[in-house]
């Protein structure tokens, strides 16, 4: 009976989203209170479920070994679901003020809540087929958010998002079917399900891994399947924050971790050279994302290409197949989520208050929006990886992982990418604080408390995790010890 609680954090957002459309609210304030209470309640429910039993498991539907919908909580699920649930609360309060300037608010918050439930479902999936079902659902519930503005560009971006996402899911499905012929049990098991037994199937297993890597890599914006992500920037900023920080791209990365260490395992990946072939895509992703970011004047587009590069860092940590590298990869999953959501929140605040989209128009905005731009600056420095920031901690582990793997090329690539990151983020800070805008207003133009509070709070978390990284590092180490 206790195991039924694992369903609640997944189903509850769906139920509450339905009631959001059934209930009649006297005004927006009451509606916003309802939404805030729903998201906070789901967070409490998620934490309580984990408190009951971290190894809780629930089989929902089993027709055969392939079609087996099953949920389970493990340490990796705890990390991902807590990250998502926490950032969802901040995004909720931010969205309440931001969406006042947009239409169809109720529709936005409906799919906003549905996406939370699906993301928790991805975190709690116990096998590949369950993960695949929620992965497909994620595309469906985020599509209305991508096309929210209903402009011509939004529909083009939405169409591109669907084509890429369903194309990637097709790769995953094909890989699952091929893997089922080799091993009918597709349940996630620490260390992999093949038990190192790959004799005679090396080439097939390599093909299966690459199919799944690229399939899940679509949502993780792995080059050459990355272009949907910058195109999706036509969506409202809270959507961009979710796409780039938690829901979509991190679900792609999370799925790659699951496949690499809970299906194949480090030993099998080494034997079939899966890490070598996948590293080609990862290195190109890291460098191309950084180079493309430099050339964009549009702030959200620049941050989008930055995301592509930073996701490459995380995946690089996954495929280096040693403890330090994997610790760095999982740490960067957390740190990048926190940093990037601050950067997008700041971009949204600038657009809301000043209607500025391009960096070249941000001259002197640091004096008009000091709190916003100081938070942006702290997050930027963290993303570059300057000590003592949380970005430095995760990149330090990644560099150690590269040295442990005897791949001096990887630390060099990380340093080059860090330099490129500084070249596309530091000029924004210089433009905001050191270039004069003769027509700028002296009065404070920072956004209202509902937008500013999440920005300041997450920035504080970013700073604290740089000074006290062991809060997360120790838990990540417990995850990694079981996998390598």
SSE layout and pairing:
Blueprint: H1 8-22, H2 28-52, E1 57-62, E2 68-72, H3 75-98, H4 105-124, H5 128-146, H6 152-182, H7 202-217, H8 228-231, H9 237-245, H10 247-264, H11 266-271, H12 274-294, H13 299-319, H14 323-354, H15 365-368, H16 370-384, H17 390-404, H18 409-434, H19 449-467, H20 470-481
Antiparallel strand pairs: 1-2
Helix pairs in contact: 1-2, 1-4, 2-3, 3-4, 3-9, 3-14, 3-19, 4-5, 4-10, 5-6, 5-10, 6-7, 7-10, 9-10, 9-14, 10-13, 12-13, 12-18, 13-14, 13-18, 14-16, 14-17, 14-19, 14-20, 16-18, 16-19, 17-18, 17-19
Kindly describe this structure.
- It is found in: Endomembrane system; Membrane.
- Residues 125-421 form the NADH:quinone oxidoreductase/Mrp antiporter transmembrane domain.
- This is Proton-conducting transporter membrane subunit.
- The chain crosses the membrane at residues 6-25, 32-51, 76-96, 108-125, 161-182, 204-229, 241-264, 276-294, 333-351, 371-388, 408-430, 451-473.
- Belongs to the CPA3 antiporters (TC 2.A.63) subunit A family.
- The structure is a single chain.
- The chain is mainly α and 484 residues long.
- It is globular and about 70 Å long.
- Helix content is 73%, strand content 2%.
- The protein has a two-stranded antiparallel ribbon with strand order 1-2.
- The two termini are 34 Å apart.
- The protein has a domain at 288-484.
- It contains 20 helices and two strands.
- The chain has helices at 8-22, 28-52, 75-98, 105-124, 128-146, 152-182, 202-217, 228-231, 237-245, 247-264, 266-271, 274-294, 299-319, 323-354, 365-368, 370-384, 390-404, 409-434, 449-467, 470-481, and strands at 57-62, 68-72.
- The mean pLDDT is 91.
- α12 runs antiparallel to α13, α13 runs antiparallel to α14 and α14 packs across α20 (470-481).
